[in-house]
Design goal:
It is a single chain. 11% of the residues lie in helices and 38% in strands. By secondary structure, it is mostly beta strands. A hairpin with a 4-residue loop joins β2 and β3. The chain is elongated. About 41% of the residues have low confidence.
C-alpha cells in the first residue's frame, strides 16, 4: 500500500511539474513585458503594392530630358549622363589623368574623350568605352601637359556613341 501512495504522489508531482510551464503568471502592476508572438523567427518584410509617384522638371535650357530608363528617344540622340570619377595631376609625368563613367548607357561601341584646357592651350586623349553590367566606364585617359604648365586647368570628359552623347566638366590644379 505504501508503494501505491508513493506512485500516486510521484504521478501528481510529475503532472504538476509538466503543467507548470503552461501556466502564465498573472500580470504584476507597474511591470510591462513584451508581447509574445509565439514565434522566434524575425518578422518578414513585405513589399508595398502601391507605386511611388515621381515628378520631373524639364531642363531650363529647353532641351529634352533623357528617358528615365536610358533607352532610345525615338531616333534622337540620347543624353549620356557622364560623370568624372577621378581627375588629377601627376607631377612626375607632368600629365592629367581622368577616369569616369556613363551611368545611363551600357555599350562597348562608344568613344570617351578627355580634354584639358587652359587659356589657348588644349590637350586631349581618347579611348573606347568599356561596358559593365549597368554602366559604361571611360578608363584612365592620360594627357601630357606642356613643360612648365601650372595653375587651374578645365577638364572635360565627353562620351559619344552615335545614339548617346554627353559631356561633363571639372577643374584640376597643376603645379
Amino acid at each position: 500500500m505504501r508503494a501505491g501512495k508513493l506512485c500516486a504522489t510521484a504521478l501528481i508531482v510529475v503532472t504538476l511539474v509538466g503543467v507548470s510551464g503552461c501556466v502564465q503568471e498573472p500580470p504584476r502592476p507597474g511591470v510591462s513585458e513584451p508581447a509574445s508572438t509565439g514565434s522566434t523567427a524575425p518578422p518578414t518584410p513585405r513589399a508595398s503594392a502601391s507605386p511611388t509617384p515621381t515628378t520631373s522638371t524639364p531642363p531650363s535650357d529647353g532641351s529634352t530630358p533623357p528617358p528615365a530608363n536610358g533607352g532610345s528617344t525615338g531616333g534622337q540622340p540620347a543624353n549620356a549622363d557622364v560623370q568624372i570619377l577621378d581627375a588629377r595631376f601627376d607631377p612626375g609625368a607632368s600629365a592629367i589623368s581622368v577616369a569616369g563613367m556613363v551611368v545611363n548607357v551600357v555599350s562597348d561601341a562608344g568613344l570617351c574623350t578627355a580634354t584639358a584646357s587652359q587659356d589657348n592651350v588644349s590637350v586631349s586623349a581618347t579611348a573606347s568605352g568599356v561596358a559593365d553590367a549597368s554602366v559604361t566606364y571611360c578608363a584612365s585617359l592620360v594627357m601630357s601637359l606642356p613643360a612648365g604648365s601650372s595653375g587651374e586647368w578645365s577638364v572635360s570628359l565627353a562620351y559619344d556613341e552615335g545614339s548617346a552623347h554627353g559631356t561633363t566638366v571639372s577643374k584640376v590644379v597643376v603645379g
